[in-house]
Structure formats: structure tokens, C-alpha cells
Amino acid sequence: MLIFAHRGASKAAPENTLKAMHCALQMGAQGIEIDVIQAAGQCWVIHDVWVQRTTNGFGRLDQMTEAQIRQLDAGEGQQVPTLEEVMALTANRCLLNIELKGIKDLALFLQQLDGACESLGIAHQHLLFSSFDHHLLAQLSRLRPEFAIGALTASCPLDYAAFAQELGAVSVHTDVAFTSAEFVQDAKARGLKTYVYTVDEPQDMQMLKNWGVDGIFTNVPDKALHWLAESEQ
Ligand code: G3P
Ligand code: MG
After folding, report:
1. Low-confidence spans in the chain with pLDDT less than 50
2. Is the ipTM of this complex over 0.85?
3. Domain limits at 99?
4. Distance of CA 233 from the midpoint of ligand 1 (Å)
């Protein structure tokens, strides 16, 4: 079972910060999930477009200048990092799941991503792109068929994982609250991996493992890795 640090190791350090990425790598997470939003011509690693939940500022990220964003404190003196800064830290050290939250200009995103991959020597095999916006994923899949795409859902669709297959995804990312053995079976039959969010309790980890889930997103990768090692003894 693959352990993804959700927003980095977000229990140990402020979510989506370089410190959270560093902690996740130290803990041995095989994957890291981050959320990205475009603003001021850059791609920022942050979950909400309104910055007040995770920073000391107030307002919409996409109405701020780069200087204003750089001044935000995301906790423990951490800045809101750019995607490139996170890629530089995690480069080829884990699977980086880039969740596209607020990408309005896909061409600009791809241009900057390509630039970062080239300068940092990152192979696209180390990246997994996901989004709740399936129109955006369809566009991405058309433009970059070689990219690994994860189809996110917060529900259990009537036709289970069919939507993810239609998108040409390699994985389907589901909410633990709506994941069932039937769903996992259906995804498997379609050749899709199932990654489930957000799973912090060993009882849930065990249930998902029994169903054959391929990976989990957790705020506590250290705890999950410990549980996994114990459960495999
Ligand atoms: O990518 C999995 C999970 O992060 C999706 O929900 O709201 O935590 O970004 P959210
Ligand atoms: Mg996310």
C-alpha cells in the first residue's frame, strides 16, 4: 500500500509548506500530495483560494501580487511555496501528486511545469496529476497523453470507476467516507489503482487494505508507515 503524505506531513508541520514536505520525506512517505492554485502568474502550493484558514493574511490568493503572497505566514514562519520550490525539494525522491485546484491557464501551467522539470531533471513518471475538475483533466490528458492522471471524486458514482476510465486515468482517488469494496473491485477490473483520502486511523487503513486499496493519503504518514510495517509482520 502506497503512503501519500496529504498536503505534506500536515500533522507534523503546517500543511502544504516546505517544512511539511521535508517532514514527509524524513518519515519515508513514498508519495506526497499537494494542492496548487495559480495567482500572480505563478503556481502556489496552497489548498484554499481564500488564504485566511492557512495563513495570517486575508483575502483571495488570485487577487494578490507576488510580493503580497510572499509576505504571508503559513505557520511556523513558513511561506506559501511555489510549485517549483516544492518540486525542487521533492525532485525524484517520491511520487508527487499535484492536485490542480485553481488552474485557470493550463497552457501557462504546462509551460512553467516543463521549465521546472527540465531545470530540476524531473521525469514525468515522478508526477501524478489529479483534480476534481474532470474537464480540466480531460484537457490535460489530450494535451499530455503521457502524463499520469488521477481522477478525484468526493462521491460514489452510480457507475463506480467508469468516469476515471473515460478520462484515461491511471488511478481513481476517492473519499474514505464513500469508498466501498464494490467500488475498489470495479476499479481493479478496469485496471485502475484506487487511492483513498484522508485516512488517519489504523482501523480504516486495515479495512481499505482488506479491500485491496492501492494507496492512502494521510496527514500522519509516520503513523501509517508504522501501522503498515506492523500489519505486514
Ligand atoms: O487529493 C486528495 C485530497 O486532497 C482531495 O481533497 O480537499 O483535501 O484537497 P482535499
Ligand atoms: Mg488535496
Report:
1. none
2. yes
3. 2-47+81-231
4. 31
